[in-house]
Design goal:
The chain is of the alpha/beta class and about 400 residues long. It has helices at about 20-30, 50-55, 75-80, 95-100, 105-115, 125-130, 135-145, 170-180, 215-225, 255-265, 310-315, 330-345, 385-400; strands at about 10-15, 35-40, 85-90, 120-125, 150, 155, 160-165, 190-195, 200-205, 205-210, 230-235, 250, 270-275, 280-285, 300-305, 320-330, 345-350, 365, 365-370, 375-380, 380-385. The strands form six sheets. The chain has an eight-stranded mixed β-sheet, sandwiched between helices. A five-stranded parallel β-sheet has the order 2-1-3-4-5, with helices on both faces. β1 (about 10-15), α1 and β2 (about 35-40) form a beta-alpha-beta unit.
Length: about 400
């Protein structure tokens, strides 16, 4: 039996075009042994029917504050009390605003106000609505109160605009829900610092040398640290995905900027994790104006960038945990072992790149743990979120 078997989730479905995906969310949750109570707002019912959710979950869908047969005085309070997690997927700008302001004008918003269970929102809305200062302020308010967020993702939306606002895929939402059901505070009071993303090393004002790091692995690590109660700081180079709400993000472009920020913050951190795909080299003398094609070959002189993890390891304080990620195309164990000693690390996560199901931009990863004692653990192909979960199991064991 899994640790989530027998748990109950209230699944709030609101009036986004992504409401149809909530059926898959409900189905995946049921398959994981979770009891799901579906709640559909009036707007959601214009897009999906309660019968679908009832067939999937085996439970009556709540569609109205005063459904017949309900105890109108206390049913929402009872549900709020017994729920282990309150998931709103999709979460519109409207429901985020109501939750942030404490409004309670229907069953969903009333129960959100009454529950003491963890709350997870999966936003889905037009890009401009998501980026509006009011929506961002509401998200910040809810995050400050301890609410959790998954997504939104970027892409082409139903309204044909392109940008952030698309609801995360059901599998990602369910994975995040499972972790919240297993929530722990084993990093409460700890400060986790990590680097994430890649670097852009300028050639001239409009061109740069970079790599295809998406930032997905780093942000999965940040999200897991947040789930465990840590204070999280992310030094992020350019990335394709948004960082999880709740962490402090320091945006940088170059490896030198990332190094300067890391050396400044690392002395106050309990755990330092180098997830970023740091550029090993930079152009020695970037051009100050855009280079024009002139028929001749262009020669660039490259110079080494600072080794961020080695610099952090050199000033490592007693009791501090340092972890490195090593993106490798081969010889994972040998390269990880070399990195351990060279950079004074407690643990190296050697992850395979250059294959379709692992590495930059993928949602899954093949990795090996190599620790300072010489122990090697090869992991099966898994999601980056699962890898982050396993990583912090190891880190908390070392801290203990």
């Amino acid at each position: 039996m899994t640790t989530t078997s027998g748990k109950e989730i209230i699944l709030g479905v609101t009036g986004s075009i992504a409401a149809y995906k909530a059926c898959e969310v409900a189905s995946l949750l049921v398959k994981r042994g979770v009891r799901v109570t579906p709640v559909l707002t009036c707007s959601a019912q214009k897009l999906v029917g309660p019968a679908s959710f009832e067939g999937i979950t085996g439970n009556q869908a709540v569609t109205d504050m005063f459904d017949s047969g309900q105890n109108q005085e206390i049913e929402h309070i009872a549900a709020a009390t017994r729920a282990d997690l309150f998931l709103v997927a999709p979460a519109t700008a409207n429901v985020l605003a109501k939750a942030a302001q404490g409004l309670a004008d229907d069953w969903l918003s009333t129960t959100l106000l009454a529950t003491r269970a963890p709350i997870l929102f999966a936003p889905a809305m037009n890009t401009n609505m998501y980026g509006h200062p009011a929506t961002q302020a509401n998200i910040a308010t809810l995050s400050d109160r301890g609410c959790h967020f998954v997504g939104p993702d970027s892409g082409t939306l139903a309204c044909k605009t392109v940008g952030a606002g698309r609801m995360s895929e059901p599998a990602c939402i369910v994975e995040r829900s499972m972790r919240l059901l297993e929530n722990s505070d084993d990093l409460k009071g700890r400060h986790v610092l990590l680097t994430s993303g890649g670097n852009h090393e300028p050639i001239d004002p409009v061109r740069y040398i970079g790599n295809s790091s998406s930032g997905k692995m780093g942000f999965a690590v940040a999200e897991e640290a947040l789930r465990r109660g840590a204070k999280v700081t992310v030094i992020s180079g350019p990335a394709e995905v948004a960082p999880p709400v709740g962490c402090k993000v320091i945006p940088v472009q170059t490896a030198q900027e990332m190094c300067d920020a890391a050396l400044l913050i690392a002395p106050g951190a309990d755990v330092v994790i180098g997830v970023a795909a740091v550029a090993d080299y930079r152009v020695e003398h970037p051009m100050t104006e855009k280079h024009k094609r002139n028929g001749n070959d262009l020669t660039l002189t490259l110079t080494q960038n600072p080794d961020i993890l080695a610099a952090v390891g050199a000033q490592k304080k007693n009791g501090q945990i340092t972890v490195g990620f090593a993106a490798e195309t081969g010889d994972l164990v040998e390269n990880a072992q070399a990195k351990l000693s060279k950079k004074n690390l407690n643990l190296v996560v050697a992850n395979q790149v250059g294959v379709s199901d692992s590495g930059f931009g993928s949602d899954t990863v093949r990795a090996i743990f190599v620790d300072a004692s010489g122990a090697v653990e090869e992991l099966s192909l898994q999601s980056k979120g699962d890898l982050a979960h396993s990583l912090f199991d190891r880190i908390t064991a070392i801290l203990a």
